[in-house]
């Protein structure tokens, strides 16, 4: 055992405490070897007495040191250690945990009190239990026991150890987003979109949002201190900048469509024209906003049409169709085609060049991705949800044709367990070449003509079908204005490429998306294996109702009038039951802006 930097001897060890000679005042060393037997004390006897006294002191110090060491090192937690004012020093870990639990019980009212939070310019309160705020007692005691302590401080020192605080980051982020309200804005992801063979940039714009990491620390500290918390809004930029977008256009997008590329295979040659290159060349941003080019060989094949079809035979996935109210297997088949990964890589390498624009590829056997055996394992056997919305104008209107085109693109799609379905990812860009037409769409707070207008109605229908199937909502955004043809809150818009609709198949079974339409309705059904008794929606009351304004617009072919609608906020709750019990209750909230009453005319004098 170590005490004050010197070693205390044990039973089988020689003392290592060095005792130096002691000189006493007014006493000179006596060279006489033996003192007289009787009589007054002589200097020699006096010296020996003092040396004996010194030895006794040393022995006493050593004995006392052993006791002090035992005192200082008693328990798992160093003496003088406190957490939240509770003395944990000198205790075992179990005893320290009980002492800390007792202290937390005394502070329960304060620790469970709502935390005043200012997010941007809005104030709210966070309940600790709602965001998982808690003190990890075992981790705190471990930190107190493992913290360094100097031997002297174990006797007379004191130290404070901060408690280990835990919080559910996901629940905290959701609560702060709710508190933030309409102060924030979504990030505009960078993109490059081809209109024909002309690349057009979509420049990034920052999100205005909560600094989640900073908010976690601020909320933890404010909770313990019992004071208000301020969470500022920060700008979060995509990883790729405006300059990155311009560089990709100059170095890749424009050169890519400046001339055709020759594809040579062992079955012959095919020319890939600039228009097909533009269809297949994609610039996708990841979740961080990093823009990356790639060649979508599936879209390239579709653009080449018969040209590549003469050289290869595409494999066909096994599929399902609904016949007689039941899913029926459509067999797949093997094919022989160019390896997609190699073709995409090699084509991307030659696209920036002005010459040498030739790619060589071998035709290889190609098996379907989804075989009949794999399809049978997915357990798609019954309809688990269906949803229908109505549209005006009949099938002759461009808007209705866009809805039907989107339905055809998605019909028969199979989403495997654990997969996330992206509507933008499935259809790709919805342009003229894909069969979409100009129809009214909301841009900048008003209705304007735009290619693919009306697809948001199909998106809403698809969203509701996935919603009532109990599938996990990954990404959706309701309209800025309320339209009575949609269910309030439980609806979604879409806009290429910024806004997408995604859901995740969080069941152990596959999901088949089946679409159908009439002259006035669009229907989406989900087929799988039913795992829930019911999925229903409960609405809260509308609140913060605001009236629309009247706005006069310059008349002309691009002006679209509107009757206007009120704005309001509302909550919707998805209630999922299984085995007669509510197993999930999810809250969806949205705030609709009042849609102005747009009049295509000059304002009255």
From TrEMBL:
The chain crosses the membrane at residues 51-74. The keyword Transmembrane applies. InterPro entries: Glycopeptide_resist_protein, Vancomycin_resist_VanW, YoaR-like_PG-bd. Residues 252-359 form the YoaR-like putative peptidoglycan binding domain. Keywords: Membrane, Transmembrane, Transmembrane helix. Coiled coil: none annotated. PANTHER family: EXPORTED PROTEIN, EXPORTED PROTEIN-RELATED. This is Vancomycin resistance protein YoaR, contains peptidoglycan-binding and VanW domains. It comes from Micromonospora chaiyaphumensis.
């Amino acid at each position: 055992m170590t005490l004050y930097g010197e070693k205390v001897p044990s039973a089988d060890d020689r003392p290592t405490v060095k005792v130096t000679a002691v000189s006493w005042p007014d006493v000179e060393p006596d060279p006489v070897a033996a003192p007289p037997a009787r009589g007054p004390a002589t200097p020699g006897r006096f010296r020996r007495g003092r040396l004996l006294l010194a030895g006794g002191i040393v022995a006493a110090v050593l004995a006392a040191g052993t006791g002090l060491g035992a005192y200082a090192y008693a328990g798992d937690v160093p003496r003088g250690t406190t957490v939240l004012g509770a003395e944990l020093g000198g205790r075992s870990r179990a005893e320290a945990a009980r002492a800390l639990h007792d202290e937390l019980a005394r502070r329960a009212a304060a620790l469970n009190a709502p935390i005043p939070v200012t997010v941007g310019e809005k104030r709210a309160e966070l309940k600790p239990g709602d965001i998982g705020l808690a003190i990890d007692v075992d981790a705190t005691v471990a930190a107190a026991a493992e913290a360094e302590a100097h031997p002297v401080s174990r006797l007379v020192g004191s130290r404070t150890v901060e408690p280990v605080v835990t919080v559910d980051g996901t629940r905290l982020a959701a609560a702060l987003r709710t508190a933030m309200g309409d102060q924030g804005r979504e990030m505009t992801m960078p993109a490059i979109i081809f209109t024909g063979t002309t690349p057009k940039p979509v420049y990034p714009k920052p999100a205005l949002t909560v600094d989640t990491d900073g908010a976690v620390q601020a909320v933890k500290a404010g909770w313990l201190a019992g004071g208000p918390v301020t969470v500022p809004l920060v700008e979060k930029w995509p990883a790729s900048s405006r300059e990155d977008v311009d560089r990709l256009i100059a170095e890749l997008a424009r050169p890519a469509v400046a001339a055709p590329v020759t594809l040579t295979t062992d079955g012959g040659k095919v020319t890939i024209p600039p228009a097909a290159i533009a269809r297949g060349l994609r610039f996708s941003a990841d979740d961080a906003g990093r823009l990356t080019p790639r060649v979508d060989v599936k879209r390239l094949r579709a653009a080449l049409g018969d040209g590549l079809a003469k050289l290869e035979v595409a494999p066909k996935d096994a599929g399902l169709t609904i016949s007689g109210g039941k899913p029926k297997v459509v067999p797949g088949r093997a094919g022989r085609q160019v390896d997609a990964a190699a073709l995409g890589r090699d084509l991307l390498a030659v696209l920036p060049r002005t010459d040498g624009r030739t790619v060589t590829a071998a035709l290889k056997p190609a098996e379907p991705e989804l075989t009949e055996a794999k399809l049978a394992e997915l357990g798609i056997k019954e309809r688990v949800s269906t949803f229908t919305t109505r549209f005006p104008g009949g099938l002759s209107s461009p808007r209705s044709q866009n809805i039907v085109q989107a339905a055809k693109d998605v019909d028969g799609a199979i989403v495997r367990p654990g997969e996330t379905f992206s509507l933008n990812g499935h259809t790709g860009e919805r342009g003229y070449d894909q069969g979409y037409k100009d129809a009214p769409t909301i841009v900048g707070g008003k209705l304007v003509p735009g290619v693919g207008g009306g697809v948001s109605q199909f998106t809403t229908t698809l969203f509701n079908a996935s919603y009532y199937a109990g599938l996990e909502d990954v990404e959706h955004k309701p309209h800025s204005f309320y339209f009575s043809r949609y269910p309030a809150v439980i609806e979604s818009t879409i806009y290429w490429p910024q806004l997408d609709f995604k859901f995740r198949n969080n069941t152990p079974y596959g999901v088949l998306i089946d679409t159908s339409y009439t002259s006035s309705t669009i229907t989406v059904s989900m087929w799988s294996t039913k795992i829930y008794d019911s999925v229903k929606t409960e609405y809260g009351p509308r609140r913060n109702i605001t009236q629309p304004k009247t706005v006069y617009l310059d008349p002309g072919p691009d002006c679209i009038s509107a009757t206007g609608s009120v704005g309001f906020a509302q909550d919707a709750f998805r209630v999922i039951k299984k085995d007669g019990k509510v197993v999930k209750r999810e809250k969806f909230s949205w705030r609709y802006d009042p849609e102005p009453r747009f009049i295509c005319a000059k304002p009255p004098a």
